[in-house]
Specification:
Elements (H helix, E strand, L loop, with lengths): L9 E6 L23 H19 L3 E6 L11 H13 L4 E5 L7 H7 L5 E9 L3 H7 L6 H13 L3 E8 L8 H18 L2 E6 L7 H7 L8 H8 L8 E4 L17 E2 L3 H4 L2 H12 L9 E6 L10 H10 L8 E7 L2 E4 L11 E2 L7 H10 L1
Parallel strand pairs: 1-2, 2-3, 3-4, 4-5, 5-6, 6-7, 8-12, 9-10
Antiparallel strand pairs: 10-11
Helix pairs in contact: 1-2
Length: about 375
Amino acid sequence: MEKPIKYMKNAKIIMERGKCSWGRCYFCGWGKKIVDASIEDLKKRYKRFIEKVVKKKGIEVVEILPSGSFLDERQFPREFVKYCIEEAKKAGVKAVIIESRPEFINDEILQYIKVEGIEIHVAIGLEIADDEILLKYYNKGITVKDYLRAVETLRRNGFKVRTYILVNGHPILQDFNLHYKLLKKTMNLVLKMSDSVVIINTYPHLKSELWEDWINLRWKPLDKEQFLKLVGEWAEDPRVELDFNNLNFIPKFPREKKIPLKGVGKEYLLHPYYEVWQDFFVRFYEPPPGKEYLLFAPCSYKKPYTRSKTWRAFLGRISGYPFFKKIHIVVVSTPGVIPYEFINYYPFNAYDWPLWLETEEMKKEYIKVT
């Protein structure tokens, strides 16, 4: 192709079926999912994607994101993989990106799915070029040697190589100097091996072990400034893509973790659920565009706040004025500060602080914290 893949117009489609064959990576929640989907249903979805997105928008690169490995035949039969590539070619696509763990990359399947006239890029999640971290901390179940073997197999069969690198994927890597040293070693290797490299910022996936470390305040995601400080030297390399916010990150909680937070005490003022949200508001949140005025509002016993008499009264008084749309409402309450657009999110819709149980000492602590 005449230009690097990072500069081409691309579109992504998520293809989920079955379960990841490994499913034990420390940082990954996708691999824990089991999805019941027929190949016929997936074909219909893919066909709609080709017609409504790829053809209409003149897409040059199609990226297929599986919940596991697209070359694992227990998840995706090879006939279906080839079908997806052929349909993309018919739509005028120049390249298709698929993902796989190294153990499913072999000569036989590559020769079967190969389609002339379109580039096939196989993405491998190496994450980091350090076997101790891969096996002991990330629990990837692969080594650098496995990655290199897969790369050699892809090259031998005329396929392109795409490598995923994960930064900050474990609490041990929150030491910046250690992390940078390992990242530098990793990039020196993968830039020799790959046609393209994606450096991915880690966020807490639901159902992952990392989520538990995040919610228990043992790990934090990198904000944009921290991420660029770590990886910025590769930003201008035409082979390298920086993926800072791949999940459009906001704190999320699985149903079984959504407990009512009702009571008075330090444990309710400094609850980990509140702490991760406040960290998000401080380091990741950006106010909606067009807001010029900040209005701090009190919380209410009723949840969501908009159901209370106080909120109905003050919103009723100001909502008719032309400047109302320029007002950014922020609630001050036990969990901290809560921008208006998040008042229906857990736990802001599921807590209570009974004022009649407050002591003078607790009031002072409340003021200090909030």
